[in-house]
Amino acid sequence: MISVINELRKMKIGRVYIAMLIFFVFGNIFISFLYHDNSFQSHEALENERNMYVETLASIENEDEYNLKNICEEKIAIINYCIDNNIPYQQLSVPGNLAKNAVAENLAILFIVLLINNLV
């Protein structure tokens, strides 16, 4: 174990970790600006969005092959909660950010493979 730690010190792995940390921080900041949605700032826009889901729910026939009724009911409940509690709708959250960060995950795997290659 000591030899592995010594090899990591020789490769100056701290710089790689700092570079990865800087990359992920700036990547997340960029993603938050890129996917920031201001289209639902007013109650009127939220009401229109809710009415669209209500109309879609009313137009669904008996056979619901893609489970659209549950999706529409869930969206209506989320919009009603946002309206009642005066919170923003469709803002970037942690799970949404992670979903949009899939490319960064691949780069992290690439860094790990290069690190293991240097150790071997």
Describe what this molecule looks like in 3D.
The protein has helices at 2-11, 13-34, 43-59, 68-85, 94-100, 102-119. The chain has six helices and no strands. The model has no long low-confidence stretch (mean pLDDT 78). The protein is mostly helical and 120 residues long. The protein is 77% helix and 0% strand.
What Rg, in angstroms, do the CA atoms define?
23 Å
Number of E-type strands:
0
Beta-strand percent range: under 5%
Query: What's the number of helices?
Result: 6
The helix/strand order is: HHHHHH
Share of helical residues: over 70%
Q: Please summarize the sheet with the most strands.
A: none
Shape: elongated
Distance between the termini: 14 Å
Low-confidence stretches: none
Short descriptors:
mainly alpha, single chain, elongated
List strands and helices in order, with pairings.
Elements lengths: L1 H10 L1 H22 L8 H17 L8 H18 L8 H7 L1 H18 L1
Brief rundown of the structure:
This protein has six helices and no strands. The chain is an all-alpha fold and 120 residues long.
